[in-house]
What does this fold into?
Amino acid sequence: MSLSYLGFITYAVMLASAIVPGFWGRLLGIITSVGGVLFSLWLLYAELFLIEAICPWCMASLVIMILALVVAIWRITKAGDLRS
It folds into this structure.
């Protein structure tokens, strides 16, 4: 599976988590965004130390993933409890 397909699936799941209300939407959002941020940070490491070249699309994706993580955390704290 190519990296672009993995990114597409990740962003599609993030969109679905924004649409799904309640516990399952918040859980899906936090899991997807944490995974996306961790993977994007690994890609940043690979760009800086292995490839020695920066990909603007990867950097933009990292910024979007960090923003998605902030929104996912906000959704959980706004709900007051992940289980409600």
User: Anything to note?
Assistant: The mean pLDDT is 91. Residues 3-79 form one domain.
